[in-house]
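Let's study today's protein:

:::
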Amino acid sequence: MPWWAIGASLIAANISAEQFIGMSGSGFASGLAIASYEWMAALTLIIVGKYFLPIFIEKGF
């Protein structure tokens, strides 16, 4: 698969009813602290892209 199809799949899987309904409800109930969930997800994706993706490409995964 090309890289853009994999990236589009990741974004499409991340944006779902959980994002629009669940995270909004959690934010209303507990405040802005729920945003830390999204910040950690972004940080994790950056780490995976920077350090693990080159290994996966080299190994042919």
Q: What stands out?
A: Residues 3-59 form one domain. The chain has a mean pLDDT of 82.
